Amino acid sequence: MTIDSYEVGGLTTSRLSTAVLDSLPDATAVVDRTGRIVSVNHAWRMFAMDNGGRPETTGVGVDYLAVCSRAAKAGSTDAVRVADGLRAVLAGETVQSELEYPCPSPAVGRWFLLRITRLAGPLPGAVVSHVNITRRKAAEEVVAHQAAHDPLTGLANRRLFGTRLDVALGRRGGVQALGVLFLDLDGFKAVNDTYGHDAGDEVLLTAAHRLQTVLEPQDSVARLGGDEFAVLARRSSAEALGQLRELVSEVLAVPHLVHGHLLNVPGSVGMTLAAAGEASPVVMRRADEAMYAVKRARPPRPR
Question: DSSP 3-state assignment of 184?
Answer without folding.
Answer: strand
